[in-house]
Amino acid sequence: MRVNILHSRRRIPRTRFGRAMATMFTLAAITAATLVTTASPAAATASGCTAARDIGLVCGEVIGSGLHISTATVTRTRPGWPVSGNVCDYQGLITVYNSSGSQIYQQRSPKHSGCTFYIGWFDFNVNRYFPNNSKISLSFYEYGVHQGTVSFKITT
Q1: Has residue 151 got a pLDDT over 90?
Q2: Which of 12, 87, 75 is nearest to 47 (CA)?
Q3: Termini Cα distance of the chain
Q4: Burial class (CB in 10 A: 0-12, 13-18, 19+), 73
Q5: What's 7's DSSP letter?
Q6: What predicted TM-score, i.e. pTM, was given to this entire model?
């Protein structure tokens, strides 16, 4: 499985904090790329992250074998400084598209009311086979607002 890591085009301010956040995002991207390139070719397991809408990351992980997807997880992290480290009123979404771009599967998590500190996530029990060259997208929403999407290509 290959991963397509989506990147935010939003510029991070050139402050000490901004440089630290840019470094964190760069390290997360390098780590995600390393995880994908060192994965066994027979496994359909991949993970990756993208910058969230405001601050923090949206990450996804897909676990399976071949064209079979067992589980998927979407995670939202938000650092605690200088803004609130809470992830509030959130929901996850998994969507799979075939090689033509048509949606062939979708599952929404229940909405989580209230807040959790630093991290929120949803695990999806998929347990399905998908056609070769399908794309699986994991999205995260807070207060109904899209925070980010991480996508992976399912290949044999």
Answers
A1: yes
A2: 75
A3: 7
A4: middle
A5: -
A6: 0.72
Phi, psi dihedrals of residue 74, rounded to the nearest 5°:
-120, 135
The reply to whether omega before 79 is within 30° of 0 (cis) is no
What is the average pLDDT across 98-108? 97
What span, in angstroms and rounded, lies between the C-alpha atoms of 77 and 135?
23
Read off the amino acid at residue 125. Answer: N
What confidence tens digit (pLDDT) does each residue in 7-44 have? Answer: 333 333 334 444 444 444 444 444 444 334 333 333 56
Residue 131 tokens, joined: 């056609």
Contact 113, 47 (CB under 8 A): no
pLDDT tens for residues 62-93? 999 989 999 999 999 988 765 678 899 999 99
The Cα–Cα gap between 104 and 131 comes to 10
Phi, psi for residue 146 in degrees, rounded to 5: -65, 125
Backbone angles phi, psi at 131, to 5 degrees: -65, 155
The span from the CA of 100 to the CA of 75, in Å, is: 27
* Residues near 56 by beta carbon (within 8 Å), at least 6 away in sequence: 76, 77, 78, 79
Tokens 């799979």 — which residue? 96
Instruction: State the greatest distance between any 2 C-alpha atoms of the chain, in Å, as a whole number.
Output: 47
